[in-house]
Amino acid sequence: MSASSSLPKEQIEDIDYLDLDRIIEDEFNGDRENLIMILQAIQKRYNYLPRPALLYLAEKIGVPFSKIYGVCTFYSTFSLEPRGRNIISICLGTACHVRGGERVRERIQEILKIGDGQTTEDMRYTLESVRCIGCCSLGPVIKINEDMHGRITSDEVKNTLDQYE
Ligand code: FES
Questions:
Q1: DSSP per residue over the chain, as a string?
Q2: Number of domains in the chain
Q3: pLDDT given at position 76
Q4: How far is CA 70 from CA 7, 90, 120, 151, in A?
Q5: Among 64, 108, 127, 130, which has the minimal tally of Cβ within 10 Å of its Cβ?
Q6: Which ligand 1 atom is nearest residue 94's CA?
Q7: Does residue 152 line the site of ligand 1, with CB under 6 A?
Q8: Residue-number span of the structural domain to which 139 is assigned
Q9: How much distance in Å is there from the Cα of 158 to the middle of ligand 1?
């Protein structure tokens, strides 16, 4: 067994530090005032916030790691756990709920065999429930990455998910 095989996945994530420098310095001038936007950009790059990247960021902008960690846990949009290549947000707000959002969620869970907040073993999908994503008239709505799928029925879920590798 190699030394790294017992490390949690997040610690063996392949971090491209040159790419991190590009985000931190080139895009945001290494300015700690831009912390939230830097975190958003790192999360966009990795789909979550890898711990080694946060440690590097802390040193780079001179902000204690504990403070950065606190910001990451305060905002629900940030994830400290590895997430799948495709993020499925199922809306369970009132408008979507009354139009069958719960049945759509059950169908997604049945197909992917994961619960809310979980990721498939092949890292293809992560499922997250949200409360209103701002297009209630299209309910029930799911969002996959940046794509909205409105008025979706449970029968359409499988074909919709299959579009995302
Ligand atoms: S309640 Fe689902 S988009 Fe508003």
A1: --GGGGS-HHHH----HHHHHIIIIIITTT-GGGHHHHHHHHHHHHSS--HHHHHHHHHHHT--HHHHHHHHHHSTT--SS---SEEEEEE-SHHHHHTTHHHHHHHHHHHHT--TT-B-TTSSEEEEEES--S-GGG-S-EEETTEEE-S--GGGHHHHHHT--
A2: 2
A3: 83
A4: 23, 26, 27, 37
A5: 64
A6: 1
A7: no
A8: 86-162
A9: 21
Q: In this structure, are 117 and 144 located in the same domain?
A: yes
Could you tell me if the CB of 138 is within 6 A of ligand 1? no
Q: How far is the CA of 150 from the centre of ligand 1 (A)?
A: 10
Domain assignment present for 49? yes
Supply the CATH number for residue 118's domain: 3.40.30.10
pLDDT score recorded for residue 4: 36
What is the structure's pLDDT at 11?
46
Any domain includes 81: no
91 Cβ below 6 A of ligand 1: yes
What pLDDT score does 112 carry?
A: 97
In this prediction, residue 142 carries a pLDDT of 97
